[in-house]
Amino acid sequence: MAVPTIAKGPSPTRRAPSRGRTRYRPSEVAWGAAFVAPAVILFAVMGAYTIAYGFSLSFAKWNGFTPNWRWVGLQNYADLLWADPRYAPRVRTAAVNTLWVMIAVPILTVLVSFPLAVLLNSVRRLKTVLRSVYFLPQVTSGIAVYFAWMYVLQPDGAVNLLLRSLGLGSLQQPQGFLGNPSTALPTLIVITVWSSVPVSMMLYLAGLQAVDPTLVEAARVDGAGSWHIIRHIIWPLLRPITAIIVLLALRDSLQGFQTFLVMTNGGPGDHTNVLGLETYRLAFLSLLGPTLGLSSALGWMLFVAAVILAAVNLRVMRRVT
Amino acid sequence: MSTETARPTAADAPATGRAAGRARVHWSLPTVLARVAVGLLLLLYAAISLYPFLWMVSAAFKDRLEVVAGGNLIPHRPTLQTLAETWSELHFFDYFLNSLKVTGLTVLLVLVIYSAAGYAFSVLRFPGRKTLYRLFMVLLFVPGVTVLLPVVLLENKLGLLGSHWGLILPFVNGSAPLSILMMTNAFDVIPGELREAARVDGAGELRIFTTIYLPLSRPVLVTIAVLTAIPTWNEYLLTRVSLNNPGTFTLPIALQNLQSGAVQHYNVLMAGALIVVIPVIILFVAAQRYFVNGLMGAVKA
């Protein structure tokens, strides 16, 4: 990857339109190498090395302190999936919770963001202001906003107050929404949807503006109502965007856990433990236990699941409207 | 903005179609009701979007007694004291500078490294170009948590753990796939004739890159900057396990420490949260035009 010094100036062999498929201009090859070198070097250290390291670690037992790894083959994977009674049941609970998140978040995100984008696209006044307001949850997404949610969701917090003043006192949660095992997971799902709606809405909005207005106009002339137009023209046209949104939501639900770590840390009990969080805990929160290999193994299973999901998602969305 | 992609027949249709539509609006009762309903729904979601922020601001301006009492969104005795104390006595100003340093350097490196890579992938022809590009795209699917542990172990070995560079380098690398994707797409739509003409005039690749390709892609550069800056500013997972020295803390960690303190004062916690959130909001409002158009352009590409 050494970069020789390059004589500047127009190349004598300039073939503008027909770039040879196999023949490269030496100066261009050198420049290409120079331009990608920083990205590749950084990736080699921070990406390739760590990925390879993590992958091999998933076949070993190690607590991070002893000088040597103990190679155990596929034992870590087996322990997590069924073999070890200390880890397998926890992983199963986390997997079920993750599954709920993966089902609920994409569906709810689409159900909220698509109508929202259609409505927003139909108004002229206040459009940009509303768009910015809707975007706030996305740009601020992080620990600060999670703390704000914890504040409003606590036992004497604003949400309980609001429910009481609306006459919905029976829906109040005296232990707080995050303290009650049966409401903690749904609450976290709602917050995840709340923070993933902005980008989805923006993507739909972009799609809506690319829809050929003559199509809509023609349908209206033929007597189609708004509902009909949305259901049978706009929704199918935006199918690729729905596919992207569902894929992003699935990926985030499968791998994301920051909300969970900050707001409940998996509790109460293990009622909001998810696979990403379990991976994090095995890596950083089990102190001296030899669980680093387990963490890596779980991480790689998440990676495989993400790749399978992406493939299935693209295929299914291509067929179903 | 949308006319570039539209076909000639469609290009002039929107104007006439929209004008005709506006002329035909009847202010009949159902239309009015429908409009009011739409307006109310839109405002309702605006309220939902703002909900936690309103309470965050509210609590940050309350004193200790009032925040415990809860109740009103509007503080009875609004005070700046909580914010002022958090900013100076709790050293949030120092943490703010740390966050600024980490985020600024990360964004700068991302822009320099991946615009160059995007230029190579889009414009230059060299062996292994496609393979390398696909390799970066596969990275999109590697979960952050999977590489988090190896990154920490590696940095421990290199002596980077605990320093700000130990955060910046993984953050930069983590934003590689998306940045390369967006830069390559942006450079792809710049006509190759521009480059050929510049070459005839004797410009080298570096010159073409910096004087033609970069200025033409400013909206994408801003979009990438914002898309990198926001998650970096809020980053918590790697930061939490790598920073030990309070002198190096960034805002999210400082905020976390407020919460895990012995006594929880929600007015202090929310004041800290407000300090974390406000720069991001300012950045978003300032760059919003680029940001929104950039995102929309990314969909069309």
Could you tell me which chain pair has the largest interface and how many residues each side has? A-B, 102 and 105 residues
* Mean pLDDT reading of chain A: 82
Count helical runs of chain A: 13
Which radius of gyration of chain A do the C-alpha atoms yield? 26 Å
Q: Determine Rg of chain B (CA atoms, Å).
A: 25 Å
Q: Helix count of chain B? A: 16
Taking all residues together, what is the mean pLDDT of chain B? 82
Helix/strand structural class of chain B: mainly alpha
For this structure, the quaternary state is: heterodimer
What is the rounded distance between the termini of chain B?
Answer: 13 Å
Task: Write down how many β-strands of chain B occur, each being a DSSP E stretch of 2 or more residues.
Answer: 0
Q: Report the major sheet of chain A.
A: 2 strands, antiparallel
Which band does the percent of strand residues of chain A land in?
A: under 5%
The proportion of strand residues of chain B reads under 5%
Strand arrangement across the biggest beta sheet of chain A = 1-2
Order of helices and strands of chain A: HEEHHHHHHHHHHHH
Largest sheet of chain B: none
Explain the overall architecture.
Helix content of chain A is 69%, strand content 1%. Chain A has 13 helices and two strands; from the N terminus they run H-E-E-H-H-H-H-H-H-H-H-H-H-H-H. In chain A, 41% of the residues are buried. Chain B has 16 helices and no strands. Mean pLDDT of chain B is 82; it is low at 1-23. Chain B has helices at 8-11, 13-23, 29-60, 64-69, 81-88, 92-122, 129-138, 144-158, 165-174, 176-188, 192-200, 205-216, 218-234, 237-242, 251-260, 266-300. The radius of gyration of chain B is 25 Å and the shape is globular. The chains are: A mainly alpha (321), B mainly alpha (301).
Q: Strands, helices and their partners?
A:
The complex is a heterodimer of chains A (321) and B (301).
Chain A: H1 26-57, E1 60-61, E2 70-71, H2 75-83, H3 88-122, H4 127-139, H5 143-153, H6 158-165, H7 181-210, H8 213-221, H9 226-237, H10 239-255, H11 258-263, H12 275-284, H13 292-319
Chain B: H1 8-11, H2 13-23, H3 29-60, H4 64-69, H5 81-88, H6 92-122, H7 129-138, H8 144-158, H9 165-174, H10 176-188, H11 192-200, H12 205-216, H13 218-234, H14 237-242, H15 251-260, H16 266-300
